[in-house]
UniProtKB/TrEMBL annotation:
Protein name: G-protein coupled receptor 143
Gene Ontology BP term (one): regulation of calcium-mediated signaling
Annotated compartments: Apical cell membrane; Lysosome membrane; Melanosome membrane
Region (Disordered): 370-391
Highest taxon in the source lineage: Eukaryota
Sequence similarity: Belongs to the G-protein coupled receptor OA family.
Name of the coding gene: Gpr143
Transmembrane segments: 28-49, 69-89, 109-133, 153-176, 196-215, 244-267, 287-311
A GO cellular component annotation in the UniProt record: melanosome membrane
Membrane-protein topology: Multi-pass membrane protein
Entry-linked SUPFAM superfamilies: Family A G protein-coupled receptor-like (SSF81321)
Length: 391
């Protein structure tokens, strides 16, 4: 699981709340993390592999949105591998991990492993948060015809730059001036927790707003495409709305336990003695949500593939040939299209019709990008659009 408590556990003088959760059935907790991450890893890869029975089609270049969805899955896979490796070492070498708690020690490898594995997990899941934010921004810009495949470079710079900067800054403040004196006061811990949860809260607050505005813009595009709003177009707009809802639902399910757990642990930290009897229920709730985090955090990768593409089936095609893969978009990015130049509408009626058709084509491409991975929605778009009937 991904929690800033993993980094604070690397401090020999860790706080009592961190000690409480990290020492609660560590073998069971590590086993839960390994099991959940392994299942998610296998199912995520299965979802992304090409399947038998899918007829290969010649597809244009992938869009920026489809590239972002693929990168989210890759970050989840790498984060899951980090959880499996970290938990396996904890289970297989308990004496090695026990050296982390030693204040006077000469072997720095246990602490290096503790810090390195925790940073790996935090960095990759922080990147997932930033990529989800970029996906919401890109979806809105696509329907506004202000984004394209070229913008993926800017998304890379923002995502990896902010993820690395916040991760390094939080770790540096936590372990300043040395590992032996870290977690010695709130001035060390609070900035670390802020840099960890800032991107998570950004997705929770901003993404629903951007998705709502995107859905409204999609409705306007569908209405303006032919001047009418048919039943097929209404259904397509609903499917895009459901797609965004599934993404946010998975995110809330997988990470709400982290917010609850941190709130409970911070409350316990403010108490003079967390072992008092009146705090028994709060301690129990903190431990329960701690185990839930170990189950839900790694499962995010698989659940996201279900939200992105739906269930793609078990029949994997491992033959080495060029074919359509699940994350390919129905069309190239809107930003890569050549927009028509201004024309004199009094000169030629044929040119006016041609521009209208091109504009309709661009509108269809924007809609198909948002509904990629949804075959039924793409088929209805194909049948309802005279532009696609000529393909």
């Amino acid at each position: 699981m991904a929690s800033p408590r993993l980094e604070t556990y690397c401090c020999p003088n860790r706080d009592a709340a961190t000690q409480l959760v990290m020492n609660f059935q560590p073998e069971v907790f590590c086993g839960v993390c390994i099991g959940s991450a392994s299942v998610s890893l296998i199912l995520t890869i299965l979802q992304l592999l090409p399947k038998k029975g899918q007829s290969p089609r010649k597809m244009p270049k992938a869009s920026s949105s489809s590239t972002i969805l693929l990168l989210i899955s890759i970050c989840d896979i790498l984060g899951g591998l980090g959880m499996i490796f970290r938990s396996s070492v904890w289970l297989g070498f308990p004496s090695f991990v026990a050296n982390i708690s030693a204040v006077n020690k000469t072997d720095m490898w246990p602490s290096a492993f503790c810090v390195g594995s925790a940073m790996w997990i935090q960095l990759l899941y922080s990147a997932v948060f930033w990529w989800l934010f970029c996906y919401a921004v890109d979806s809105y810009l696509v329907v506004r015809r202000s984004a394209g495949l070229s913008t993926i470079v800017l998304y890379h710079m923002m995502t990896w730059g902010l993820a690395v900067m916040l991760c390094v800054e939080g770790i540096a403040l936590l372990y300043y001036p040395s590992l032996s004196s870290c977690e010695n006061g709130l001035e060390h811990a609070v900035p670390h927790y802020i840099t960890t949860y800032a991107p998570l809260l950004l997705v929770l607050v901003v993404n629903p707003i951007l998705f709502r505005r995107t859905v409204s813009a999609v409705a306007s595009l569908l209405k303006g495409r032919h001047g009418i709003y048919t039943e097929n177009e209404r259904r397509l707009g609903t499917e895009i709305q459901i797609r965004f809802f599934k993404i946010m639902l998975v995110f809330i399910i997988c990470w709400s336990s982290n917010i609850i757990n941190e709130s409970l642990l911070f409350y316990l930290e403010m108490q003079p003695d967390i072992n008092e009897m009146p705090l028994k229920n709060i301690r129990s709730a903190a431990l329960i949500t701690w185990i839930i985090m170990g189950v839900l955090n790694p499962m995010q990768g698989f659940l996201f593939t279900l939200a992105f593409y739906g269930w793609t089936g078990w029949r994997v095609d491992l033959k080495w040939r060029k074919r359509e893969i699940p994350w390919e978009s129905m069309s190239s990015s809107v930003g890569e299209n050549t927009y028509p130049s201004p024309v004199n509408y009094q000169s030629n009626i044929h040119d006016s019709k041609k521009i209208s058709t091109t504009d309709s084509h661009q509108t269809d491409e924007a809609i198909s990008m948002l509904s990629e991975g949804n075959t039924s929605g793409d088929d209805r778009l194909t049948r309802s659009s005279p532009v696609y009937q000529g393909w």
